[in-house]
Amino acid sequence: MSPGAGKRGGIDLGGTKIQAGIVGPRGKVYGEARRQTPTEGGPADVAREMAAALRDAAEQAGVDPASLQGVGVGSPGDVDERTGEVSEARNLPGWEGTFPLAKALSEDLGMEVRVGNDVQVATEAEFRLGAGKPYRTIIGVFWGTGVGGGLVLDGRPWLGRGAAGEIGHIVVKRNGARCTCGRKGCMEAYAGRAAMENEARREHDGGEKTDLFKLMRKHGRDRLTSGVWERALEHGDKLTEKLMDRAVEALGTGVASACNVLDPEAVILGGGMGVRFGESYSEPLRKEMLKHLFADDRPPALHVAALGDLGGAIGASLLFDE
Amino acid sequence: MSPGAGKRGGIDLGGTKIQAGIVGPRGKVYGEARRQTPTEGGPADVAREMAAALRDAAEQAGVDPASLQGVGVGSPGDVDERTGEVSEARNLPGWEGTFPLAKALSEDLGMEVRVGNDVQVATEAEFRLGAGKPYRTIIGVFWGTGVGGGLVLDGRPWLGRGAAGEIGHIVVKRNGARCTCGRKGCMEAYAGRAAMENEARREHDGGEKTDLFKLMRKHGRDRLTSGVWERALEHGDKLTEKLMDRAVEALGTGVASACNVLDPEAVILGGGMGVRFGESYSEPLRKEMLKHLFADDRPPALHVAALGDLGGAIGASLLFDE
């Protein structure tokens, strides 16, 4: 019996990093690796880096990649689960069109590759193996660069016509702040890490005092990562506190609106910002949600994603359970 | 064979009126009657008036009420479908607590009575017999005194934990207008007929010119019914136009947010205001929705409820199909 028997690869493709894992059938992680997402080139370059990350993870696990049952991918953009093609992944380099990601990776790695929506596979991972296990109906909220959402309704993933779960684009303020999607007043325009960074720059350029950018440079970053936000909070940076409060207000409002539509048992908060701040901001977030929840006598449970950063890769590997 | 064989009663219990119908298994209406909802007394008085409305409808249909297969009720408030109890129907007189509506009606009428949520049964009626027939997944939007919503997802009613579909309480503007529910910025706080009337009074009291209240009195009404709004529009009343535009903006924003969560095939617009203004305002509503729809290259279809005012009673009768 080959050491890879029953194991699958999982790759979470993000705008900043590629996270790969070698995962057992019940979600146990045998090896993992992380690479930076290329910021230049095109989809083929991204696919090559993904394959390399998977080989790194296999090596760490001591598993021959060829022995894996297959490789699942959680991808941003418009994913065709049937063909494995990904379109309009606008936070990835040169990916405005359609690219046959499953085919490219499959040829490189020599095995079957399946592709799913990144946020949806992470939600299903939390549902089956993480913080969502006790429930039948959850909303996954992935608070990172943007704000993504995934739905499991009565045990089944809900994709709508393919674009369900776009909770980052629930409107929280008509004619409000401009979102990266071009629209106005979306939850993401206040709560997304990228929007928060834009606002911090605007205020900083306008003369507002903040340590955010000093901390960013000190830690060798070229953007305000969740770690930079955390350090600035530890420093008692006023602008940071203000922008975090603003983000949590928007999150609470938008998530409550989604709950008013679906009345789920639980909300699972993941993503880079969600995993980092989920515990420390859970009370303010609950409070903001309660202001707008219609059934406020029995609010949904609120949990931080239990699989943390690896949830995306684990969820991707679960594409081979179906 | 008795003339009532296969026929059911359906009663739609609203804050203003009780609509009863005698309905065949495929939704054909054999008789109908309408009574004013009592504004004084308590749940037992309301139940008595409901039974009377049903007897009126049976008489119109030439059917012996005792021969009906049963009577379904669509009720506001918190409905327990299993027991037929209704709690906290706050737009009905003295109904803050819990009342055994199915039991009271069943004793009065001498037959089985089932109770469902008013908006949900109306949504299912549109799904099975009305404008939603071509689709598997719809959102029903009932624009009346308030704004209610019902969901059918992949052919199945979605109730969540009992309070799903509260789309009137999707937030469209953080810290916005005060809603009748006590919260701030709900869609209903701009689009509900009651909220529109409050705003019209405020503006009128503040010196704004309008024919709304003159038309109300002229037609013997004590509130701004959808008919009064329609006549004021025909008069070119400026305040009316302004408040209608404001309502449609809020509706478009909130419904788009719900669509961003669920990605449905169609939105069905019903309710007193929805049925009256759905056609004439469909283009402005579509336009407002498009501003906020994430998947704006394939917006959901938008239809006016095909069963009109009778949808609620027909939907209630369908409780005997299950």
Quickly give the structural class of chain A: alpha/beta
In order across it, which strands form the biggest sheet of chain A?
A: 3-2-1-4-8
The number of strands of chain A is 13
- CATH architecture of the largest domain in chain A, please? 2-Layer Sandwich
- Report the CATH superfamily of the largest domain in chain A: ATPase, nucleotide binding domain
Sequence-ordered SSE layout with sheet pairings:
The structure is a homodimer of 322-residue chains.
Chain A lengths: L7 E6 L3 E7 L5 E8 L6 H19 L9 E5 L2 E3 L4 E3 L10 E3 H9 L3 E5 H12 L8 E6 L3 E7 L2 E2 L30 H4 L1 H13 L6 H7 L7 H9 L3 H25 L3 E5 H7 L4 H11 L8 E4 L6 H7 L5
Parallel strand pairs in A: 1-4, 4-8, 9-12, 12-13
Antiparallel strand pairs in A: 1-2, 2-3, 5-6, 6-7, 9-10, 10-11
Q: Keywords, please?
A:
homodimer; 322 residues; alpha/beta; Nucleotidyltransferase, domain 5; 2 domains; 5-stranded mixed sheet; 11 helices; 38% helix; globular
